[in-house]
Amino acid sequence: MRKVYLVGYMGSGKSAIGRRLSYFLRMPYYDMDKEIVKREKMTIPEIFEQKGEAYFRKIETEFLKDFRDEFCIISTGGGVAMNAENRKIMRQTGLVLFLDATFPDIWKRIHKDKNRPIVQRSTKQELEDLFYQRRKYYKSAAHINIRTEGRSLRQIVEYAAFQVTRLKGE
Predict the structure, then answer these.
(1) Position 168 in a domain
(2) I want to staple 75 with a disulfide (CB 3.0 to 4.6 A). Which of 6, 109, 115, 119 is the partner?
(3) Are 104 and 7 in contact (CB under 8 A)?
(4) How many domains are there within the chain?
(5) Whole domain around residue 43: which residue ranges?
(6) Are 156 and 6 in contact (CB under 8 A)?
(7) Is residue 169 included in any domain, yes or no?
(8) pLDDT digits (tens, 9 = 90+) for 98-141
(9) pTM, rounded to two decimals
């Protein structure tokens, strides 16, 4: 196991957990969306607007294939696990943790976020429908499912760290 991938719907806590887990385990942390923004020299809304979603999804797959080979933690974009090739790459190159948050918790975090193109152009019901469509893909990508409801960031990080160190030792 070289990498730890965090998957889940937008607003499930991938970035917040990733940063804290990185500190806790003393492993480098990368946010896939931020790495793509750096590489493309455009924000994600700009990439969607100028080059389209299909282009963005292609870049996500390239990132998974080409990103440096080191022990690290990567928080993925909310749509990464929809692609079967992406799920396969993540499962083969690392440990995949699904941050399984409830939709009401997610809605509280994302509904005012201007940096999420999909939130800006969708209704609450459409986002909830998408949440349930994507959930099965997160589950099929994951080695470990981590329920986040009713848990503090610290509890989630400690549980995730326990899983990572347990599997590193095997």
Answers:
(1) no
(2) 6
(3) no
(4) 1
(5) 3-161
(6) no
(7) no
(8) 999 999 999 999 998 877 778 888 999 999 999 999 999 999 99
(9) 0.93
